[in-house]
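pipeline stage [seq->struct] | target=Coenzyme A biosynthesis bifunctional protein CoaBC | organism=Microbacterium helvum | residues=239
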Amino acid sequence: AVGAGAPTDLAGLQVVVSAGGTREPIDPVRFIGNRSSGRQGVAVALAAADRGADVVLVAAHVDEGVLAEASTRPSVRIVGAGTAVELGAVMAVEAESADVVVMAAAVADYRVAEVSPRKRTKEAAPEGGITLDLVENPDILAGLVRSRRHGQTIVGFAAETPGEGETLLDRGRRKAARKGTDLLAVNEVGWTRGFESADNAVTVIDAAGEVVAARRGSKRDVAEALWDAVLVVRESRAN
Ligand code: CTP
Ligand code: CA
């Protein structure tokens, strides 16, 4: 439900937002994970719901407290996903009926090649250390772009650490081109930035690499700026 005075500029839109981070099992008790709390993705989902959209939130290990906020909303349906492969399967299904798809989840690039059915023991391992074989996970976002429906808008997120000789924006532009996204929200992360914090700073670039929005503030502020940008690209597309 939308409260009095709330904007309804996303009314009638079906949106799917992934949030959180995948976990790739090593054995029944261990996994390879990442530091994503799901806050930014949940903020994107809640902002859309408050602006009138019907929302599917695909949650991969989102922090309990973060997810709680979304679970009371009648216009937000929550679907869980654990691994990258599971997330890919859920996204493929949910995207079929979506006008806008946002991949805010941190997807593991690799999974363990052979997951042990039993807990690995040191006793059974070579002395001094072990090696885990990893295989690349499918690129969910690139797959969504490949099967994009007519009129569908696909948005990615890119967390980047500043590197040698290349700006964040240049990296984002290359990534947007590689993925074929309509919009890519690029943000700087580091050991102390981005993940656990309430705030975020994001630059949004379109398919041509043009900066269409830049916002520093709460994750909700960033989410609102992202939806503004989505509306701009959808309107320009419609003409
Ligand atoms: N993504 C995805 N599937 C993957 C990896 C990433 O859908 N297997 C999505 C993320 O959800 C995000 C976007 O792609 O929206 C960018 O993720 P990122 O990790 O920055 O891109 P990668 O292509 O994995 O490149 P990098 O080598 O920088 O990790
Ligand atoms: Ca990656």
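stage status: PASS
auto-comment: Residues 177 and 208 are 8 Å apart (CA to CA). Residues 109 surround calcium ion (ligand 2) (CB under 6 Å).
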